[in-house]
């Protein structure tokens, strides 16, 4: 109700026409026409149609033609944004998930379409093909996916959940659509069609007898065999998922055919494996847990052969000719059985083997037998390790003739399959080309055609969490030369990626983007984030700069140096495979901050033990000694003793460094506390870094420290203990807790009873009314709070600090206690506001200097999250080298500059050089949240190709995104992006400069989102399907059958199995908008009922 009153007031009273239209359901689109009018006597009307928005005011018409290039589902919602002269479009798209699926539980492969599916414990299904081809589906219930099977070539997938339900999914082609002005064929999305659950057996109270243990899809794709715990086998018609009457095979029927001495009154146990005969369709192998294997003829409903095994069965696999099959068992062995006509009983296998015996071994969970044209078959199996010696290993064995390799993984094997170059149905041999192994923490692919069976690099699904991610950094618009050098430095072994189904229809990226992730083991990984597939391109390790606790060269017990140990390790023939390694040799190596200059190829990484390393890019291998400089941030202050970890010891001898980024200088902070902020200005050859004790400035070109400033408060004892120290001040924590409780009680008594909504507070601020609205009372933070000296942010800027006529280099630092320090810098070679030529005489002997220019103390002492200097036009200053090389618009140095300081509680703009407050927005007082991340983002217009605006994006502790104009700090729009309970997701969020962002949704996955309506990175792909036309699924009486339909979402490749129903037409929406906005002022009281009616009607 208040929303509509606010609209009418804006239109009729203020003469400011500003409306934000937001389409919420389906693929979202938005438009924000804003027209400033001086005539306040006439009314205004907004007419909306499918292709454009027209704004009329005062009898004049201004047409805003913003084509809607996405399908719009009409669930209309209004949001008021006071944005004069703005053509910026905002929206929130959750576009794609990067990385490895969290907690995978099932695997499937379609050899015809060359697609792979991974199911997870949360009920998600993710289908992958060629790089960029991805589809995602989500079951309605959050239940683990236990098994999956493709219907080959049809684009259909069967999934079995832990709740004993079977689901059928389809890849559905959408209608053709226009992308970037080009009409493209229909995209494909994944949707659930129907589900089924087996009925319970009459007279049996427990439903465990019909609990599904194994699924077998026959090659005809018309029948699904379902094995259960009770030993029964049920048969379902496809694609109906309906139970075939009279076809169920119960365990009693099989028991009647057994010899009397084999029965012994014992149950056969659950059905463990079902396999179809490779040459005779309609005959299947049924393996029971007790060891019995039955060759069953579906046409005659008769057992052709019984294999009377006595060892507990785990899995079965046919040999391609169908003359024999292999069974694996719980004792770590496998047996080969001959299928011969004549005697209906086979008591003993042809051969049996326990590869890693004779001591007790673990079960072989799954076994594959693949024939090869070159000679001996390839045998692959998981498990089977000796219990006593290697029972904790996660292994998979490959055997062919005399070659024997035991792949040793660092996480549990979920499932595996092999791929072939040729179609399996057209050749006489299997000839496997690759082995794909799904592990609990990564995907490993082995090349079976190359001698030695090496592993292949993955173009996607790389484990982001191979070592825990500790920080991240995004670099947009990477220069081609830097990109080429990084790719060459990180070139891995080349090979053909075996999963290549589908067609990626996404347009080529207009620019190359890098995502840098810092890890706990001291590595920095470079990822290609330009498209849908997040591809690893280069890995940098900083451990070689130091002597670590587990340095191999210093370990006398290294087994590689002991020939006797090597002799003992020869069997089993282990080979370490995979890159997931959750254990760090030394936690002090962890990377905390990263800064990269893409123009000078300089990189700064800072770690947990106060180490700051400056690196340069080199194309050649180098052996050199790294220069070391020590910066004492305490500055001999008395009364402080460091109780935390020791510093890392640098190597004193030259060390080899591979091509890529190589260390130039190591700056060691003392005390060796974790680095909390770092920034690089390569044009001035300066780096700045901060810890919980202070901040420093270092000239890496001349190898000298320019500045060291201690920010500790006299009561900052906790800052001296370090992040790795186990000693914590319990007494101080209790004191602070009681102080907070006391403050909350006092402030609660003084707080007003009624508080207006955040929209009213924001509007009042935007209109700058004289009477300030009632706000939340914010208590100032105590000056002696622990860790008040932590440096939260650092910033270099060429601006006016001393006076309003001379500008020059400056350094800004913000702390946890709300203090901001601004230093004027004297940098050799930098004068008159630009960088002079480096060849000047005497430049090498000069040193940089820093002089304190300003010191600001925020009133409530809230931590300073970000500092940004704005030029005379209110735009952020360009990055180093961008202005001098004409890569960006030169900053305005004729008008006064300002500085935007974002604390956890408010945003505030100060004029320079006087540092007087110009405008502010109290986010905590208005919204009740705290700022966690801040970024300056450029939003491009979808209507005007060359129009863009800088916008301030704030992520709060509640997980919502607030967008503000700069420098006016007018609220634009707010989105709920991350769940407020997802603390790690909020802490890991990183923004790009063009309106996108990443945050961790699990330890191994990044969620990519976009706040811009123009810049999107989403899967756009298609697949050629060969699907027979079948009757639609109908509810069945036998068992529980559900038929679901799901609305495909354009062509994003991303859909959920939920139903969207939209029955309202464009005329309904236009009618309601017309009624609301055509009301004259005297009838504005009718707007509230209209809005109420429309909100109910369209929801």
Automatic annotation (TrEMBL):
List GO BP terms, alphabetically: cortical actin cytoskeleton organization; establishment of spindle orientation; exocytosis; Golgi to plasma membrane transport; regulation of establishment or maintenance of cell polarity; regulation of Notch signaling pathway
Sequence intervals crossing the membrane: 72-96
Where in the numbering of this chain does the Lethal giant larvae (Lgl)-like C-terminal domain appear?
899-1013
SMART domains the UniProt entry points to? WD40
UniProt-listed InterPro entries: Lethal2_giant (IPR000664), Lgl_C_dom (IPR013905), LLGL2 (IPR013577), WD40/YVTN_repeat-like_dom_sf (IPR015943), WD40_repeat_CS (IPR019775), WD40_repeat_dom_sf (IPR036322), WD40_rpt (IPR001680)
- Principal location class: cytoplasm
- In this chain the WD repeats are located at 514-528
User: What keywords are annotated for this sequence in UniProt?
Assistant: Cytoplasm, Exocytosis, Membrane, Phosphoprotein, Repeat, Transmembrane, Transmembrane helix, WD repeat
Q: Which family does it belong to?
A: Belongs to the WD repeat L(2)GL family.
Protein name per UniProt: LLGL scribble cell polarity complex component 1
Q: Where is the composition biased (Polar residues)?
A: 1035-1049
User: Might you report a single GO cellular component term?
Assistant: endomembrane system
Instruction: Please name the source species.
Output: Myripristis murdjan
Gene3D superfamilies linked to this entry:
YVTN repeat-like/Quinoprotein amine dehydrogenase
**Gene Ontology molecular function, alphabetical:** GTPase activator activity; myosin II binding
Q: Where is the Lethal giant larvae homologue domain?
A: 353-454
Tell me the domain of life: Eukaryota
Q: Where is this region: Disordered?
A: 548-571, 747-766, 1031-1059
Q: Give compartment(s).
A: Cytoplasm; Endomembrane system
